[in-house]
Design a protein that fits this description.
The complex is a heterodimer.
Chain A (H helix, E strand, L loop, with lengths): L2 H18 L2 E4 L2 E5 H5 L18 E5 L6 E6 L4 E4 L3 H27 L3 H5 L4 H10 L1 H14 L1 H20 L7 H6 L8 H15 L6 H11 L1 H7 L30 H6 L19 E7 L10 E9 L1 E2 L4 E7 L2 E7 L8 E4 L2 E7 L5 E6 L8 E4 L2 E4 L1 E9 L2 E10 L5 E3 L12 E6 L7 H10 L3 H8 L7 E7 L4 E6 L14 E2 L18 E3 L5 E4 L22 H12 L5 H8 L5 H13 L7 H12 L9 H22 L11 H10 L18 H21 L5 H5 L1 E5 L8 E4 L15 E3 L2 E5 L5 E5 L17 H6 L3 E2 L5 H6 L3 E9 L1
Parallel strand pairs in A: 3-31, 5-9, 8-25, 13-22
Antiparallel strand pairs in A: 1-2, 4-5, 4-31, 6-7, 6-24, 7-27, 7-28, 9-10, 10-11, 11-12, 12-20, 13-19, 14-15, 16-17, 18-19, 20-21, 21-23, 25-26, 28-29, 29-30
Chain B lengths: L1 H17 L8 H12 L4 H26 L3 H9 L6 H24 L6
Helix pairs in contact in B: 1-2, 1-3, 2-5, 3-5, 4-5
The chains are: A alpha+beta, B mainly alpha.
């Protein structure tokens, strides 16, 4: 043996392998273990799915009671045919895992504040936020309730077994791409993870509650009287979900305003807060749904439509599928991470959801005896706090431990240890309905099985959080809508701001009984609809929250269109769901144009105004007018309020644009037009609008130079990968629309699932979502539907009986699950 | 002849060991090491034989999978890594990494026995 060369060579070889077996730092992130990652028999090459892949497979498996079949159509949508519901949910879990495992696990890591475990310390603020919000606390309580109801417990158990059966079958080379990229491995699925995922949706859809801290600052800055003007209780142009004039029942709960509310709560006090929620759900989270009765359709049968607007991500939030058993035949969009179909139809009914947007998350200022938070002042005594210990594991570093004080209100989300965002030294506890025991899954389980209106009402009446507008249509001709959730019976203004937490007077006094929730069935006008607008007019006996929680214009234009339509076909509904008409511009353009003082504008500025004047009011991709209008309206808005809001260093909540729009419709002599920073001059709206035109001209010029003035290019819609990696995302999509438009597609937000169901027998349905059935970036089915979605096209859905599936020419592949 | 034989045997053994993914990803380096002991050559020849064996093995495997995949994933990875989206470069780098590890392992193996 040549010892020295041997040793030298062995050391170099070992060093190289060690290096290739490590994650190396690369900018803010880390590389994968390159040796493993690049090895064609282990690493990412194994995830490069052949373009002509056959998914046909016989799967011998323990955990099912009977053999079962799954047929995949040409879009890779699975159609499950099982003998029992439990087997069907087992297979649903297996398929979710097979096609979306990384995503479903990653989403629960996010929900439970565990991202630092896989992504490192940069995710710690996000993790702390979710831990302190009590996501795991809420999910643990939900699981208890879900287990009490045998149907949901059995469905979850079977689903979890199915997911784990797939995970256990995975070999090192089979694990999804992202695990290899980030260097970790799947862990076993649990029912708690399903509950965590559902809590994440509650978080995403009850974000309206998070602005209490901002709003408190805003109220303190402006004073209550000015605040009321800028944050009105109701919008004039509101066309509510329940038609105006509908009579409501007498309220069963009489809510009492605390005696000192005027001074302590509404008055200006020293309550200025600097706590800023690090994560605020997108304000545009919302949706459209509507159903038209047979009296308005060509076929005489109802049509139901739904498009939930959420963040646009890859892999998609939704997984399309059909589930058929002797007691169940349902089709629609499911959540990878939970059993059942969430939005869809069965052979008797169809249903859809939009967000109710009610405020069910409030903050209370807690007075602790000292900074140990052991005791807090409540109803005249020092009350002992409980503590919840949250251990956050961090990749490659010691754990971070959060000791969260628990009060009668809920977890103390902001305290002195949460320094990153809360520097005012105060303590705020959060009271949130998502912490209350609940079983949202039961609603979807029952909807999947529902046969008629009675079943629909039974299914939804226990649904708590996040409150939704459940739209309904049935093959026997009924249509209905109901705003359902566990809604707080509040006194006017309760929970808009941070509330005092030293006694029980500011506690929630009760919950509105489900039967008193806004609802309507088979109205004379022949349609029901919702688009996140305020559900009712001022005759409804409970407080719904401030008007700016509720977008106005999609609801308005949907109702206007539906009222005018007759002989409706599913194709008409497709056109309507993807419509880009800008009703906001219809209202405000004439006002703005009238206010512009031409004499102060140069030729270029006049030309820009001319483009807006000649614009067809549609936010189609090629419209330059849409871009200039948006720039102008944004600039006017900033011009009006920047002086009032721009000087404060505190986080503030600006008035809704709707408030400005409505004020100007009424009277263009608007008091906030005056710039309070200039004392020598009183500015008018004409000054503000004219100067807005001047201000946006350089932007327009730049956009023209970059060839980005056309609306689609300017808006530049993209679908982000969950890891925010551009290479795994879809960028620069040619799609019109915007917020306030039925096609509510903004830059990274919009219709995450479009569905149209014609309640004929058999049911005729159309659907599309901005993604694909596979979550594997190495599969051509990763983003198959994106282009159709952007173009406003739909796929005719295959809703097949088992014997039809076998012979249908659009069925391409077949799984047989064989009981082991 | 020895040279060609050791290329073929190293490639075959490495491929076979890679089918057992319970073993670590660098198991092929032991294959190269053992072949270099068994088939005694000059160190430079051992190195080159293993280098070529793994360059061909990994290169061909990656090339085949990439073609069947129509470059969908390789283009994405070549943007993440960052190789400007060039899947050809990614295949070359893949092949080179395997080749270098195997070559060095074989070099080490070649020093186990005395010089001829």
């Amino acid at each position: 043996m040549r010892t020295i060369p041997f040793i030298v060579s062995a050391v170099i070889t070992t060093a190289l392998i060690t290096l290739l077996n490590m994650q190396l730092p690369s900018g803010k992130t880390k590389t994968p273990r390159l040796g493993f990652f690049l090895n064609p028999q282990y690493g990412f090459w194994q995830n490069a799915e052949p373009a002509n892949v056959s998914f046909d497979k016989d799967i011998k498996i323990a955990g099912i009671k009977n053999n079962a079949e799954v047929y995949f159509d040409d879009r890779l949508v699975p159609h499950i045919y099982a003998e029992t519901d439990a087997d069907a949910y087992f297979i649903q879990g297996y398929l979710h895992a097979k096609f979306r495992l990384w995503q479903m696990e990653f989403q629960t890591y996010a929900a439970s504040g565990r991202l630092s475990e896989i992504l490192g310390k940069s995710m710690l603020p996000t993790d702390k936020y979710f831990r302190r919000l009590g996501m795991v606390f809420g999910a643990e309580r939900a699981i208890e309730t879900m287990n009490e109801y045998a149907e949901t417990k059995n469905a979850m158990d079977a689903y979890t077994d199915g997911v784990n059966a797939y995970i256990n079958s995975l070999k090192e080379n089979d694990i999804p791409f992202e695990y290899k990229l980030l260097d970790y491995k799947p862990e076993p699925w649990t029912n708690l993870k399903t509950a965590l995922f559902l809590k994440f949706m509650s978080f995403d859809l009850t974000g309206q509650g998070d602005d209490d801290l901002y709003l408190t600052n805003t109220k303190n800055l402006l004073g209550w009287e000015t605040f009321k003007k800028l944050f009105p209780e109701r919008a004039d142009s509101l066309d509510p979900i329940i038609p105006k004039g509908t009579a409501f029942e007498k309220p069963s709960i009489d809510v009492k305003l605390p005696a000192n509310a005027d001074s302590v709560y509404f008055g200006i006090d020293k309550n200025t807060t600097q706590a800023v929620a690090p994560i605020i759900p997108n304000k545009n989270n919302g949706s459209n749904n509507w159903a038209v009765s047979g009296s308005k359709t060509k076929s005489g049968k109802p049509i139901l439509c739904n498009d939930p607007h959420l963040g646009l991500n890859l892999p998609s939030l939704w997984y399309e599928m059909q589930i058929t058993t002797p007691t169940l035949n349902t089709y629609g969009a499911s959540f990878p991470g939970a059993p059942c179909i969430i939005i869809g139809f069965n052979d008797s009914i169809a249903w859809g959801v939009t967000n109710a947007g009610r405020d069910v998350k409030d903050f209370y200022e807690i007075k602790f005896k000292d900074s140990t938070m052991q005791e807090y002042w409540f109803n005249g005594t020092w009350k002992k706090s409980d503590f919840r210990k949250e251990i956050i594991k961090i990749k490659g570093q010691p754990d971070d431990i959060e000791n969260i004080a628990m009060t009668v209100f809920g977890p103390v989300m902001y305290d002195r240890n949460y320094k990153s965002k809360n520097n005012d030294g105060k303590y705020y506890a959060v009271r949130w309905t998502a912490h209350d025991p609940s079983n949202e899954l039961a609603t979807f389980y029952k909807l999947n099985h529902a046969k008629n209106y009675v079943d629909y009402v039974d299914a939804i009446s226990t649904f708590q959080c996040p409150g939704q507008n459940f739209v309904f249509a049935s093959v026997n001709g009924d249509i209905a809508i109901r705003q359902q959730g566990k809604f707080v019976a509040k006194w006017k203004g309760q929970g808009d701001f941070v509330m005092p937490g030293t006694d029980s007077t500011y506690l929630w006094q009760g919950f509105i009984p489900a039967k008193e929730n806004p609802q309507i069935m088979n109205p004379v006008r022949g349609f029901v609809s919702s688009a996140n607008q305020m559900a009712v007019d001022s005759t409804y006996p409970y407080y719904l929250g401030k008007s700016s929680n509720f977008p106005l214009y999609r609801g308005y234009i949907i109702n206007r269109k539906l009222a005018a339509m007759n002989n409706i076909t599913p194709q008409d509904m497709q056109q309507m769901q993807t419509d880009n008409y800008n009703v906001i511009a219809e209202f405000i353009r004439p006002v703005l144009l009238k206010l512009i003082d031409d004499t102060k504008l140069n030729n270029d500025e006049k030309r820009a105004v001319e483009i807006v004047k000649n614009w067809n009011l549609r936010n189609d991709i090629n419209e330059k007018g849409a871009t200039i209008f948006k720039l102008l309206w944004d600039s006017v808005y900033t011009g009006v309020y920047a002086d009032e809001f721009g000087n404060s260093k505190l986080p503030l909540y600006w008035p809704d644009k709707t408030t400005l729009l409505e004020a100007l419709l009424k009277n263009t002599d608007y008091s906030f037009a005056d710039n309070i920073n200039t004392t020598d001059k009183k500015e008018t709206m004409s000054d503000v609008v004219t100067s807005a035109v001047q201000k946006i001209l350089p932007v327009i010029r730049q956009l023209e130079k970059d060839n980005k003035l056309e609306w689609g290019l300017y808006k530049d819609t993209y679908i982000n990968s969950l890891l925010k990696i551009p290479a795994l995302s879809r960028l620069h999509l040619p799609i019109g629309g915007n917020d306030g438009i039925i096609n509510a597609t903004t830059a990274n937000h919009g219709p995450s699932w479009r569905m149209i169901v014609h309640l004929t027998q058999p049911i005729e349905a159309y659907a599309v979502f901005p993604g694909g059935e596979s979550g594997n970036p190495g599969s051509k089915y990763y983003d198959t539907f994106v282009d159709s979605w952007a173009a406003g096209k739909y796929y005719a859905v295959l809703f097949l009986k088992k014997q039809e599936a076998r012979h249908n020419n659009r069925i391409k592949w077949h799984f047989t699950f064989i009981k082991a | 002849m020895k040279f060609i034989t050791s290329i073929i045997i190293t490639a075959l053994l490495s491929f076979a060991s890679g089918l057992f993914t319970v073993l670590p990803w660098y198991t092929f380096s032991f294959c190269a090491f053992i072949v270099a002991i068994a088939i005694h050559q000059k160190p430079i020849h051992s190195f080159l034989a293993a280098f070529i064996a793994l360059f061909i093995l990994w290169g061909v495997l990656a090339f085949i999978m990439d073609n069947q995949n129509q470059h969908v994933l390789s283009t994405k990875v070549a943007n993440i890594l960052p190789l400007n989206g060039s899947y050809n470069l990614l295949i070359l780098i893949t092949a080179f990494v395997g080749a270098l590890v195997a070559g060095l392992a074989a070099l080490t193996g070649s020093y186990v026995r005395k010089q001829n």
